[in-house]
Structures are given as structure tokens and as C-alpha cells.
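The following record pairs a protein chain with its ligand, NAI.
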Amino acid sequence: MVLKNVCCIGAGYVGGPTCSVIAWKCPDICVHVVDKSEMRIKQWNSDKLPIYEPGLEEVVKECRGRNLFFSNDIETAVKEADLIFISVNTPTKTYGIGKGRAADLKHIEMCARKIAEVAEGHKIVVEKSTVPVRAAESITHILSANTKPGVSFQVLSNPEFLAEGTAIENLLEPDRVLIGGEESAEGNEAVAQLTWIYSHWVPTEKIITTSTWSSELSKLASNAFLAQRVSSINAISALCEATGADVSQVAGAVGRDSRIGSKFLQASVGFGGSCFQKDLLNLVYIAECVNLPEVAMYWQQVTDMNEYQRTRFAKRIVECLFNTVTDKTLAVFGFAFKKNTGDTRESPAIYVCSHLLEEGAQLNIYDPKVESKQIQCDLTSVAVTSEPERVQQLINIYSDPYDAVTDAHAIVVLTEWDEFKKYDYKKMLSVMKKPAFIFDGRKILDHEALINIGFHTETIGKRFSRNTLLRASGEHFPAFSWTP
Ligand code: NAI
């Protein structure tokens, strides 16, 4: 079989960029990205794409209408495709068995049923979504239970490892491409077909093949390891604040050990995004289901530590502002869960802001890429507050950071956008209430410079003895003493 037509169900943060890159690198393949959402498809076909990713617009503009098409016609795309990626969302279940932990596979199942209903001939079905281990088995069951004469399927696992904000870069130069397939002649043939697509631009030594179950579990394990590093350094950051050590220096020293490595050792207000939390919870749930409570507890602690870090940071803001933020104005810089994306799913900003709103703070929020509608929606959702009207009155969304700080008591940095490093903080200080505070939850600012111009400066994993307020109030690091 020569692959000519590829279809992807799900035009989201994964399906959109992944298939745009496939279309760009494989001009001999026709790629149809389909979605049930009319709005999303309309945006993919417009000048303003539904997601922001550096480099994405250029790729889409070059391929769209040539060998890359976005549409809502799922049936035709499935019928014509030789290979179908399933790239739909797999959020944490909000109901029933496994509520709050298990992955909700209803969208995956709907795709499998749709494929079974309309497919003709032989199809390779590729799980691109992150799924629990052995989900491919369920897809296979649905497909084979509904197979018509002359129709056959092979199901592969091909998890996506891209990170939002660097998606195009990651897709073009992946650390690895992982393909899991059935250990049979048909399975090997399907793996070879998918390998052929990637080999248009990925060196073959970077394309790893495993069993389907290993591939599925590798994705969950990768996200769990990444989240664990963030929680590990964040746990150390709390120790640094209590003892007078500096977490950047500790991370620098620890990361020089080649067995540990220096990446992903940046202490912060916590991890966010649509994946880490949900994939960790899913892993915990799987471990519980197979009766491994110790394993479940181990990974649960990674997400607990993340929650602790967000709450700790929010509490520190309140404490520093003389134990009350009621009716105080705080300028929030950044709402996206990380820089270079407009995605706010599970953003630490949601949790820190909702804690401050609960305490009665007035928030002036600025983010370079997040739409104000999205911020309002996140902070007034039922999952976050029982008083949406009150919250609505306490938040103001700004399109200019200098306007956001006028008459504010403090600046709170919650996303590591590069532009925050370049602001004229002297100018900002001049229009703020005094004493003016700055809380850097991402450790990106020049703290010494901020202290020198008169900001009371707080960050994660370090205390500044030069802060004038600390000196005036006689606050000092507790002498470290240990008596048995
Ligand atoms: P998303 O929510 O941005 O996109 C999913 C899309 O699927 C939506 O546009 C939705 O309308 C569509 N959809 C859902 N059910 C459908 C159906 N039955 N028929 C047609 N369209 C349907 O989700 P995202 O972020 O792209 O994630 C997709 C999967 O990839 C998830 O399993 C996620 O865990 C995984 N993943 C996400 C990464 C990320 O950075 N966002 C990175 C790696 C994996």
C-alpha cells in the first residue's frame, strides 16, 4: 500500500500543528484535518489561527489549499484516508467511575465508532491522543465488532511529545518518534507505513518502535517524569526559602551532574497545561486499578506538591502585603500556563488568582496572547468559584501592562513571557502605591535591579535580605539549628 491520503480527527493543539508539519514535509501526501467544531475549522481556514505557536502560521499558509485541508466533513475524510490519526481530547473524567482521575475516553470511542461506520477497504488507525495503557485494545474491539466485509484495520499507538510554545520546533526536530504496534506481519506493515511518513524528515535512528502497550505507557511515564522534576525542584525551593539557600544556585549545582542533567530544573509557581496534571492522575488511577497503591501514592505526591507550591506562593503574597489583600489592587503579568502560547488549561495563574480573589483582591490582569474572554471564563468557572458575579467585579483585563500597574500595590508575575524582562520598572514603580511589591513566580526578572530601584521583591526559592521592608520589620532568616 502506498499512503496517499492521511486524515486527522481533532484539529486542536496536537492535531493542527502535527498535521501541518506532515503536510509541509510530505508534499506527496494529502492531509485532511477534521473536527466536529465548526468554529475551530473556520479559524483554521482564516487568517487568525485558533492557536498561537511560533512558526505555525508560516507552515499553514504554505500548505493550506495545496495538500493540507481543514474541514468538518469527517465522514468523507475518513472514507478517503489510508491512515487516520485520532487526536481528540482525553480530559480527566468529571463524572462516574474514576471521576477526577481517570481519562475520559468518550471522544476516542466516538471516533472509533465513526471510523467503523464509514470506513471502506484497509485503514491504519493511529492513536495520537494520550490514552491509558491498553486503550488501543478497546479501539480494536470496537472496530472489529463493527467490521463490514472488505474492511480491515490495524491500530497503532503514536503518542505526541510536542510541548506547547515550541510545537513546531519539537515536531521538526523531535528527540524521538515513538510507534507502538501489534507484533504480527500486519502490525509490522502498519508500523512501516507510519515510519515512512516520519522518515520524510526524521532520521530513522530517532524513530523507535515498541509494543502498543509500551508505547502508550511511555507517554504517561514521560509526562510523569517531567512533572516530577518540576515538583522536586519546587520542594527544594521551599527548603531554600526557609534556610536562606538560593534554589537557582542549588539547581545549577545539582544539574551539573550528568546523571541528573540541567533541563527542567527551574523552580516556579508550578506546572500547568492540559497534560501533566491529567496524565499524572491517569497514571495514579491505573496504578490503583491494578492494585499497586504504593505506586499510586508515589505519583500522587507529584501533583500534591504542585498544588502546595501554588498555594504557598499565593499565601506568601498575602503575608507580605501585611496579611491582607482585601481591596488592594494587584497587577498580574501573564495568564497562559507558559510563554509563547495562549493556552490557559490548568494554568497556575488560575489557582493563584482565584486564591487572591477569594481574599478580596482586585486583579488587573495582562497577558500578551490570552483573550480576555478566556481569562473571564477561567476565573468564573464553577470549578474555581461559587461567586462568579463577585469575581467578575474584581477582575479587570488590560491590553497594556503600564495601564495595569497604575495605582497597584503589587505586580505578580505568573507566566515567563520574555517581554516582562524588558519593561521599564522604574516607570511602573512611579505610578504604583508605596511600598510597591513585586512577586516573581517565574524567576525571570532582575531582582537586584528591582530592589535597587525601590521594589520590595519576592521570588521563589530565595529570600532577599536587602529588601528594605524586611530590614525595617526586623524579619530575618531563622538560624538553622537542629537539636535532637
Ligand atoms: P484539544 O482540545 O486542543 O483538541 C481536541 C479537538 O478534538 C477539539 O477541537 C475537539 O473539537 C475535537 N474533537 C473531540 N471529539 C471529536 C470527535 N468525536 N470528532 C471530531 N472532533 C472531535 O486537545 P489537544 O491539546 O490537541 O490534545 C489532544 C490529545 O493530545 C490529548 O489526548 C492530549 O493529552 C494529547 N497531547 C496534548 C499535548 C498538548 O500540548 N496539548 C501534547 C501531547 C499530547
